[in-house]
Amino acid sequence: MAARTGAVVDARFCAPHATEFTLTKTKSWFRDFTITDASGAAVMKVDAPPFTFVRRSILVDAASRRPLVTTERSPTLFTLGRRWEAFKGDGSRPRDLLFSAVVQPWLFVIREVHVHLAGGDRSEKNPDFVIRLSSCGREWTVSRGRSDGGAAVATIKRTTGLFLFEGLAFSVSVSPGVDHAFILALAVILHEIRQDGIQRGQHAAF
């Protein structure tokens, strides 16, 4: 993975070297996570309010507790084309939008998610990034969109947790120059997609 994306959340999250992170679910019945780096130090936390009409998750800086990214599912009456949006800080207004992630289901299996950056192609025919599930069903690869070469920039792998309420952990590998806060927000969204799919009887295989 040698591609560079530039900043999506903030340039300070674009390390000049490859980075590794682990997301660990803090309580099996809740959606909160702790995010640690390769040394085991906590760098972010994911706070997910349990009683909200719209499912939201907030990535916060572990030291300052400052909100970095808020992800939420866009309300819809349709199962196909389910959509999640990510906003800067704890915002939720259109001007705070960073990117959208749209599920691309095939029958009852989720194999691909398209990511569209704010201010990009409004028709959303050409995704800026494509997330694909591996044949083993435990690893997602984040790649540039087809119009931008399709090079892989990160991988997100489920390392534990086979069932909905079992403790979960994910390992995340990010290429040099790639905004790791952006990739970690995608990991949170993939977990939400997995939960939502299980509840709907749609196999996410992740």
Automatic annotation (TrEMBL):
Coiled coil: none annotated. SUPFAM superfamilies: Tubby C-terminal domain-like (SSF54518). InterPro entries: LOR, LOR_sf, Tubby-like_C. It comes from Triticum aestivum (Wheat). Belongs to the LOR family. This is Tubby C-terminal domain-containing protein. Pfam families: LOR.
